[in-house]
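Journal club prep, notes for RB
We'll compare a predicted complex against what the paper describes. Inputs for the iron/sulfur cluster case:
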Amino acid sequence: MPNGKPAGVRCVQLTDDLRCMLFGMPERPVFCGTLQPNEQMCGASSDEALHILTLLEIETRPEGPNP
Ligand code: SF4
Protein backbone atom coordinates (compact mmCIF):
# COMPACT_ATOMS: atom_id res chain seq x y z
CA MET A 1 0.00 0.00 0.00
CA PRO A 2 2.41 2.69 -1.29
CA ASN A 3 0.24 5.60 -0.17
CA GLY A 4 -0.42 4.19 3.29
CA LYS A 5 -3.34 2.21 4.67
CA PRO A 6 -6.40 4.37 5.19
CA ALA A 7 -8.35 3.82 8.39
CA GLY A 8 -10.99 1.15 7.97
CA VAL A 9 -9.27 -0.46 4.99
CA ARG A 10 -7.90 -3.98 5.41
CA CYS A 11 -4.15 -4.22 4.79
CA VAL A 12 -3.41 -6.07 1.56
CA GLN A 13 -0.70 -8.00 3.43
CA LEU A 14 -3.12 -9.47 5.98
CA THR A 15 -4.01 -13.11 5.35
CA ASP A 16 -7.43 -14.67 5.88
CA ASP A 17 -6.19 -16.14 9.17
CA LEU A 18 -5.03 -12.67 10.32
CA ARG A 19 -1.30 -13.13 9.79
CA CYS A 20 1.07 -10.63 8.22
CA MET A 21 2.52 -11.84 4.92
CA LEU A 22 5.50 -9.51 5.47
CA PHE A 23 6.32 -10.61 9.03
CA GLY A 24 10.09 -10.89 9.45
CA MET A 25 10.77 -9.43 6.01
CA PRO A 26 12.57 -6.14 5.32
CA GLU A 27 9.59 -4.98 3.22
CA ARG A 28 7.40 -4.84 6.32
CA PRO A 29 6.66 -1.18 7.19
CA VAL A 30 8.83 0.15 10.02
CA PHE A 31 5.73 1.27 11.90
CA CYS A 32 4.35 -2.27 11.92
CA GLY A 33 7.65 -3.69 13.16
CA THR A 34 8.04 -1.18 15.97
CA LEU A 35 4.45 -1.01 17.24
CA GLN A 36 4.40 -2.59 20.68
CA PRO A 37 1.15 -4.09 21.96
CA ASN A 38 -0.12 -2.76 25.27
CA GLU A 39 -3.21 -3.27 27.40
CA GLN A 40 -4.64 0.17 26.57
CA MET A 41 -4.69 -0.74 22.87
CA CYS A 42 -5.29 -4.49 23.03
CA GLY A 43 -7.38 -5.01 26.17
CA ALA A 44 -7.47 -8.55 27.52
CA SER A 45 -8.73 -10.49 24.49
CA SER A 46 -8.80 -10.38 20.70
CA ASP A 47 -12.47 -9.31 20.82
CA GLU A 48 -11.60 -6.43 23.14
CA ALA A 49 -8.64 -5.47 20.93
CA LEU A 50 -10.87 -5.34 17.86
CA HIS A 51 -13.38 -3.17 19.73
CA ILE A 52 -10.71 -0.74 20.97
CA LEU A 53 -8.97 -0.55 17.59
CA THR A 54 -12.29 0.07 15.84
CA LEU A 55 -12.96 3.01 18.18
CA LEU A 56 -9.44 4.35 17.59
CA GLU A 57 -9.94 4.17 13.83
CA ILE A 58 -13.24 6.06 14.09
CA GLU A 59 -11.73 8.72 16.35
CA THR A 60 -8.67 9.28 14.15
CA ARG A 61 -10.09 9.13 10.63
CA PRO A 62 -9.23 12.18 8.49
CA GLU A 63 -12.83 13.40 8.26
CA GLY A 64 -13.22 13.25 12.04
CA PRO A 65 -15.26 10.97 14.29
CA ASN A 66 -18.62 12.51 13.27
CA PRO A 67 -18.50 13.14 9.49
S1 SF4 B 1 1.66 -5.80 10.30
FE1 SF4 B 1 1.54 -4.08 8.88
S2 SF4 B 1 2.02 -4.94 6.85
FE2 SF4 B 1 1.53 -6.63 8.21
S3 SF4 B 1 -0.66 -7.01 7.91
FE3 SF4 B 1 -0.48 -5.61 9.65
S4 SF4 B 1 -0.66 -3.55 8.77
FE4 SF4 B 1 -0.20 -4.97 7.10
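Talking point for the session: The mean pLDDT is 90.
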